[in-house]
Specification:
This protein is mostly helical and 88 residues long. It is built from six helices and two strands, in the order ααααββαα.
Length: 88
Amino acid sequence: MKSEKEIILEKLIVRALHGDITLEELYTFENIISDKEPLYLEIFHDIEQAVEHFPASFLKGYPLYEAFQNTKEYIKLIEDLNILRKNI
């Protein structure tokens, strides 16, 4: 059975993959995830990196989803999601 932290991390990853979370909102979960468990901290950091580097067109005013799918941050989030879903 998954822990509450794993469930929260999964939801945060999915939102980050869709460009649907801000850094400010992400940081509201930092105390919940903050743990001595290195895996959780690493995944939280990966989410933070993805949110910080999510590409957007400032001229057009919308996120560039296709461009994001070609980034190392996107690939890392997919890997993290697979780890959590396999409950490794």
